[in-house]
Amino acid sequence: MGFDFNHFVELIPEINTAFLQTIYMITISLAVAIVIGLPVGIILYVTDKGLFWENKTVQTILGFFVNLIRSIPFIILLVALIPLTDLIVNTTIGPAAASVSLSVAAIPFFARIVETSLREIDKGVIEAAIAAGATPWMIIKDVLLLEARSGIISGITLTLISLIGFSAMAGTVGGGGIGDLAIRYGYYRYDNTIMIATVIILIVLVQVIQFAGDFIAKVIDKR
């Protein structure tokens, strides 16, 4: 059985609910990733050898935890974080619960992207700022973030797209969203209409986000 348009129309309310749940999950997770991941990425960079806050201990410990979380497959991370999820949101199912695991996965992912973007900055610019008497905070705010803004925007785009994939995976364990809908109808009920619809929705969503992210990154890139 292929795509049944009439059946699709009947399921629009459920598809709409699932879509909004997905947007809810990735929005919360992205916000957490930016609020925590951005400072972590900056610290990873400025504590490296030769930088103004050089600290091998902080670099090593923070880098270890970032790499540790990134090395765990998301489906395993979902299960491992069940106690933490229950503690934070008092439930282990639904979009709010899935947002906890998504946030934990997104933080180190985005942090490494931020660190990589900062490493592309010419160190001569940083040295010039130090010579001019700029404080570390001023260097971070007026030099590092300003010079790396295009790369950071691209990193946000990449993180958001990755979160869409993770959110679909979260649906397989009751996280809600498009993934949950695809599993309940498309897989368990062999409903090709839902499978095709959810795939198209995810493709369109990713394309829109990628286009918007690339456009914004080019607009703010003054190099």
From TrEMBL:
Pfam assignment, any one: BPD_transp_1
PANTHER family: ABC TRANSPORTER PERMEASE, D-METHIONINE TRANSPORT SYSTEM PERMEASE PROTEIN METI-RELATED
Gene Ontology terms: biological process: D-methionine transmembrane transport
Family in the record: Belongs to the binding-protein-dependent transport system permease family. CysTW subfamily.
Species the sequence originates in: Pradoshia eiseniae
Database matches in CDD domains: TM_PBP2 (cd06261)
Alphabetically ordered keywords of this record: Cell membrane, Membrane, Transmembrane, Transmembrane helix, Transport
Protein name per the record: Methionine ABC transporter permease
Domain ABC transmembrane type-1: 19-213
Annotated InterPro entries: AA_ABC_Transporter_Permease, MetI-like, MetI-like_sf
Membrane topology classification: Multi-pass membrane protein
Primary localization: membrane
GO CC terms in record: plasma membrane
Source organism, top-level taxon: Bacteria
Keyword Methyltransferase attached: no
Transmembrane spans: 23-46, 58-82, 88-111, 151-174, 194-217
Compartment(s) of residence: Cell membrane
